[in-house]
Amino acid sequence: MPTDINNKELHVNSYVRYINTGTKGTVKDIKEENGKIWVILDNDLMYNPKMLEIIEHKKYAKSEINEEEIEKMLDDEKITDIDVDIETCGAG
């Protein structure tokens, strides 16, 4: 059985994080190809098991936001007084 970066055994349905990018997913399959072991995640990509870390799967509760809160957030994001002068300056 392959192990992750911390030498924990990887199994189908293990929840893992790819250490280079932080991509998280569930192990769908473990296969050997050309003498190397690969772990296939639910994004259908193959990963070197030593580049994966088993992590705890946390589910976050969805928060409800009412229409007024959404409008306030959108108003806060408005950009005003944008300078659209596209005159260039010489650089040699």
Features:
single chain, 92 residues, alpha+beta, SH3 type barrels, 5-stranded antiparallel β-sheet, 1 helix, flat
Walk me through this protein's architecture:
The protein is of the alpha+beta class. The protein has a domain at 1-57: SH3 type barrels. The chain is 11% helix and 27% strand. It has one helix at residues 67-76; strands spanning 15-18, 24-33, 36-41, 46-47, 52-54. The chain has a five-stranded antiparallel beta sheet with strand order 4-3-2-1-5, with no helix packed on it. The longest helix is centred in the last third of the chain and has 10 residues, at 67-76. The chain is flat. The termini are far apart.
Question: Short description, anyone?
Answer:
With 92 residues, this protein is of the alpha+beta class. 11% of the residues lie in helices and 27% in strands.
